[in-house]
Amino acid sequence: MFDPLYFILVMPFFLLSMWASYRVNSSFKKWAGFRNSYGYTGAEIARRILNQAGLASVKVEHVPGSLTDHYDPSSKTLRLSDDTFSSNSIAAAGVAAHEAGHAIQDQVRYPMLAFRSAVVPMASFSSKISTILIMAGFLLMMFMGPLGWYIAAAGVVLFSIVVVFQLITVPVELDASRRAKEILQKMGMASRDETVAVNEVLNAAAWTYVAAALAALAQLVYFALRLLMGSRDE
Description:
Elements: H1 4-9, H2 11-32, H3 42-52, E1 59-62, E2 70-72, E3 77-80, H4 82-85, H5 90-107, H6 111-144, H7 146-186, H8 192-233
Parallel strand pairs: 1-3
Antiparallel strand pairs: 2-3
Helix pairs in contact: 2-8, 3-5, 5-7, 5-8, 6-7, 7-8
C-alpha cells in the first residue's frame, strides 16, 4: 500500500542513492578511457603502494565483477575487480589506491575500520532478518496486536545495527580516499590533471556511502515512527 509518510521520509534518500550510483559509474567510465601517466595497472599500483607502506605480505588478487573492489582485513587480501586489476586507466589507479588505503588503515589500526570489522557479522545477520521481522510484525499487528508489535520492534532493533554499520562505513571510506590521494601524490604517481580525475572518481564514490547511510537512517526513523503509531493504537 502507498504510505505518504514513507514517501516523504525515505524516497528522497533513495533518489539520492540512485543519483550517487549513476555519478560514480559515469565518473569511472569517463576516466577509464584515459591511461595513467606511468602505464601501471591497478594491480601494479596497489602492489607498489603496499610495498612502500611495508605491507608486502598483503596479497593482491583479482575478483570478478564491476567495481567489486575491496580489502579483506581478516585474510589481509586486497581484491580488485575486472575494471581495475588489469587496467592502466586513471580510474583504476584511483580505485586501487583507495583499496590500498584500507590496508594501511588496517596496518595503523585505524579505530573506525576495526569497529566496522567487528560489526560486520552482526550487521550481515541483521540485514537478512530485520526486514522480515518488521514486515511480519506490522502485518500481525492488524490481527494479533501486541505480539505483532514486539516482533516488529525486534526487527527495528536489528535494523538499527545495519544503520550503525552504514554510518561507520562513511568515515572509513572517506579516510581511505584521503589516504589514496596523498599516497599517489607523494609517490609521484599522479600528475595535476590525474589528481583532478582521481578526486572526481573517489568523491563520486564517497557520495554512494553517504547516500546509503542517509537512506538507511531514514528507513529506521520511518519504522520507529510506525511503531510509535502502532503502540498508540493498542
